[in-house]
Design goal:
With 609 residues, the protein is an alpha/beta fold. Helix content is 26%, strand content 22%.
Length: 609
């Protein structure tokens, strides 16, 4: 436990403990009777809170974080954020040996201690991606039993870089409170001697006064009530609506059609926008025209049911091809014509864009001649199509030198020195997916902060785009294990990638189907996407990235370097056999809080000059 991180937050927040006699009595009983609060609150053994970067297994009843952590001091839940940021924490409801039939949680409002300005809860809209009036959102955490660790050498191997506790009942999905009863909808039950996490998200808005906001988390377990105080410190600066780096995640709109029974492209893109990522796939002139407001920002306005980060701001990434180049670029005349048409269309219709032609995925040497031919066809174009970039999922390879505009490699292939040399030549060098110990692993059995650490690593090494290979890999691709069902039961089986020789828990599934027509026993009754702890931590990392960018632009170089040294001291080609990045939420939150304080102070000094 990072005691320094706890002390810094408590002292700087200046929290005043205002507890009712009922709450004080309950908490005293928790502390004095070893957490046995049966007589105070139904079948509850203990109530406590933890941040959004810590996974608490369903059967983990002796967590080292239950007495204190970055958001909890044993009495009060304390969080902090900038304006235009989404901050989340978890209430852990730990049951006694009898269990809890019904536990309900509410957070009616957070009120500014001076101005009276409020952040108000409203009941969830039927469409989970209608974010209007959704400043406070509640979810139940769904657990999946992981019986065997991921076995994929590019994700992690057994040894010092493997996650410390990869098996057990792992927290995975964030199910909206208005889901079906018994499927995560409120009020959930809690099995005997188990944990149930309630995930609470607060969107801070753009125009609220800075300072301390207070509220009460109300918990009702089998008819017995208790209240936990909550404090939010709001910094006096805003996160930008425009991301400071890109996160592109592949999306197949046909998968929600198959699993949920209807097309939900609009809802999924709106959901992604709220999480500061972009769902990407190949576009044609026709599909780009049809979805033009996705890139101009019109799809992300109140009129289109959107509110939150990025309001009115469009997507940027619009690939010409994905997971392969197609055949239009194999012939020079066709390549010139096709690339001219595409670039002319983009220049005429979009204010800003990032596009490319995706070469054969993870190519081997047998495909290099074709890649060189396509690159030469496009680069030799005397017209506007000449600037259409060539993208490849491969570490730098001398045989393709000068042909590639955008290199994109897994963390294990990211050579820090080579990336600098390529950028000096005007080429981008990005990363995709994950893999320990070089960077975080994006699987269920890795720590929650692995996703967050990837984005910190990107900032440290000047990487401005991260790519994850799939968001909804529910229907297994061509690499599936022989004889396995192609339409996977993703709510019932944590393994989502399985070739027979290699398999991974949750790989390619950052989002789960809110409805299930193929496996109706898992239907949540939510007409849209359901998020995950991994995606929430990507969002957290992308928000952290803005803190780091602001601090750098304000000249806070020393503080920024100290934060990077604490969180991601050794990643990519700089790593060894052991993990070289932080795994505990405490480390991230300590760094983020000090960055926030310094940004706030530096901006105030600038305003006074």
């Amino acid at each position: 436990m990072n005691e320094t991180a706890i002390r810094f937050q408590r002292s700087d927040l200046g929290c005043r403990r205002v507890l009712t006699g009922k709450v004080l009595s309950f908490l005293t009983m928790v502390l004095m009777v070893g957490g046995n609060a049966n007589s105070a609150l139904g079948g509850v053994h203990q109530l406590w809170a933890v941040g959004d970067g810590q996974k608490i297994d369903r059967l983990e009843l002796n967590s080292p974080f239950k007495n204190s952590n970055s958001v909890w001091d044993g009495e009060t839940i304390s969080i902090f954020a900038a304006r235009n940021e989404i901050v989340a924490f978890q209430l852990i409801v730990e049951s006694d040996e009898e269990g809890i039939e019904s536990v309900d949680v509410s957070l009616p409002e957070l009120r500014h201690e001076v101005s009276g300005s409020k952040i108000i809860y409203s009941s969830p809209n039927p469409d989970p991606t209608d974010y209007r009036n959704q400043s406070i959102q509640l979810f139940s955490v769904n657990y999946m039993q992981v019986t065997k660790p991921t076995k994929a050498s590019w994700i992690y191997r057994s040894g010092p870089s493997a996650p410390a506790d990869p098996t057990g009942w792992k927290p995975v999905q964030l199910v909206p409170e208005n889901a079906k009863a018994g499927k995560g909808g409120f009020p959930p039950s809690v099995e005997p001697s188990s944990n149930q996490a309630i995930w609470i998200e607060v969107y801070t808005g753009r125009d609220r006064p800075p300072g301390i906001y207070r509220g009460s988390l109300q918990v009702t377990a089998d008819g017995q009530e208790s209240v936990l105080p909550l404090e939010l410190r709001l910094f006096n600066f805003n996160l930008s609506d425009r991301n400071t780096m890109h996160a592109m995640v592949y999306f197949e709109g046909s998968q929600p059609v198959l699993y949920q029974g209807h097309r939900l492209d609009t809802e999924y893109h709106r959901f992604a926008h709220r999480n500061r990522i972009e769902l990407v796939h190949a576009y044609s002139i026709e599909s780009a025209t049809e979805n033009q407001q996705r890139f101009l920002g019109g799809d992300f306005t109140g009129e289109q049911s959107y509110a939150g980060p990025g309001e009115g701001v469009g997507n940027i990434i619009i690939p010409d091809t994905f997971y392969g180049p197609g055949s239009d670029y194999d012939d020079r005349d066709s390549a010139w014509r096709t690339s001219d048409e595409w670039i002319n269309f983009l220049d005429a219709n979009l204010h800003e864009y990032l596009t490319f032609v995706y070469m054969p995925d993870e190519p081997d040497s047998s495909q290099f001649n074709r890649i060189r031919n396509i690159a030469d066809n496009i680069h030799s174009n005397p017209g506007p199509g000449r600037k259409l970039p060539i993208f490849v999922t491969l570490a730098y390879t001398a045989a393709l030198d000068t042909r590639i505009d955008y290199w994109c490699t897994g963390p294990q292939g990211y050579d820090i020195d080579r990336a600098l040399k390529e950028r000096e030549k005007g080429h981008e060098y990005w990363i995709y997916n994950g893999g320990r110990p070089f960077a975080g692993a994006v699987v269920i059995d890795a720590p929650a902060t692995d996703s967050r650490a990837i984005i910190w690593a990107c900032f440290k090494h000047g990487i401005d785009l991260y790519f994850y290979w799939h968001s909804v890999h529910w229907r297994h691709n061509h690499q599936m294990k022989p004889g396995a069902p192609r339409n996977q039961d993703v709510w019932g089986n944590p393994i989502t990638f399985d070739t027979g020789g290699s398999y991974a828990n949750g790989d390619g599934v950052l989002i789960y189907p809110g409805e299930e027509v193929l496996h109706p026993e898992h239907d949540r009754g939510i007409p849209g996407p359901i998020s995950t702890i991994r995606l929430a931590n990507f969002r957290r990392g992308l928000q952290d990235h803005q803190y780091l960018v602001m601090a750098s632009r304000l000249g806070l170089k020393k503080l920024t370097e100290e934060a990077l040294q604490e969180v991601v001291p050794r990643v990519f080609s700089d790593t060894g056999e052991n993990i070289g990045f932080a795994e505990l939420e405490e480390t991230f939150e300590s760094a983020r809080f000090r960055l926030g304080l310094a940004i706030e102070e530096a901006r105030q000094l600038r305003r006074r000059r």
